[in-house]
């Protein structure tokens, strides 16, 4: 009886196991693959993407797959131009260098792509432009950088600006926004966004007569004699020394009747004339000059007077402007810079400063102390 029960239990267990296997086999047979019918890219990518060089973009899982129960949803990525924009297996796009590349996303045999543009600078267009003031007075010959006079909205706008003048003969402006007063009158300056020219602002510029010291930035000088140079040139002697704005340099000429210099030794016969010529590069109204002496101790190296100051527009034919022009207080050591020394108003490109008489130099004698006459800085200007 006991053996029959064991046989029955074994048979029941075997039957149950068989039914389970049959059930499992049936469920496996019901699993079917569903193919991808279409994929669409997100609007974020579909309109194209601009990336700054060196940045990245995660393009993973940015497509919509239909039908929703498609079984193969694995994404694969490729780039048409990896040198410009590369993409890894996870869909991370890296911007490498300026240019464009198409990134392709493949899912279940279907493809979609978007364009990546790599730039060195992300353009932020201006939506507003405003001058700090709507009107400006500018002296003739004076310059002003306009970018420092402009406020942009947004503050980080960088699309660039175009500058124009209603009358460049009165006030001219270049592409960098450097404004210059050319002649007396009024002109309107317009600045506009390069991306959107309708975003703009205007400035009314009135050009007034210039007064004060002229800029010497482009000026040059020549001299009657070669320049003496001492060992290691402690004077900093050069033809530009008097117009370079550097107080460590000095323009030195050997006086008549003297010899000076070691590296370059120069002698000027007694009674000879010496002179220097300033080329202002353009004819300008001048009615004064000013001299800064080398120091407050050596009055014997100063200029005391000029026999003649003349002007020219061709550098060859000079006309006398003034004669016997005295440098006030040249003998007073503590006066390092002269006052503005008046001249009859003239309009020349070249001005020649000529000296021959002994009175133009220290102690009014060719044999007095001092081998050279020196100028640290020379200024020319005009007053109303």
Automatic annotation (TrEMBL):
Highest taxon of the lineage: Bacteria
Stored InterPro entries: Big_2 (IPR003343), FA58C (IPR000421), Galactose-bd-like_sf (IPR008979), Invasin/intimin_cell_adhesion (IPR008964)
UniProt domain BIG2: residue ranges: 35-117, 125-203
Pfam families: Big_2, F5_F8_type_C
Descriptive protein name: BIG2 domain-containing protein
Natural source organism: Chitinophaga cymbidii
